[in-house]
Amino acid sequence: MRVSRPGSQILVLTECRLSHIRNLAMCLVFYAYWYYALLDLGKLPDGVHPFDHLLDRLSAEPFLWLFVLGPLLFVGDIVESFMIAVVGEEFTFNGMTRTVLKNQKRLAGFDEIAYLQIRTIRGAEDEEHILTAVLQTGNKIEIDTSSNASDIIALADDVADIVGVKVIRLSPEKRKGGRIGFEL
Question: According to the model, what pLDDT value does residue 19 have?
Fold first, then answer.
């Protein structure tokens, strides 16, 4: 996410379109290979239509349907990435109008934001840090996600300076036992 300040009261966050184009290309190559290998398309008999080969393969081994339909779980992410690659994504925190805009559409007013939250999710090998604006209604606006904690903390501080709210860090240690703890 690229951060810019066109004015002292305006903060603009722009998502990198090139990285989404790169991710889409990698997905295309991965899924092309996935289906090629899974459906044995390299061993297509002469004179047999690929669709007939596909049906024969799936009827002979019905468990393959799980692997054929499995990638559909990621269609939402792929569509979102495609939209960002084509249209772009831009958050604007405008201190003069006291509004948060996403692609020039109003998401919330500054007075509707209760606080900013940084959630840390620990995986087996890495951590993911998610910056969200939590509204008075309890709804959340996801601003950015990164594996770099210092980038998210710096971004949260910049946004908090403009919006005028506090930043709360939610760490996994504070969430043990079903209770959520806050760390300022």
Answer: 83
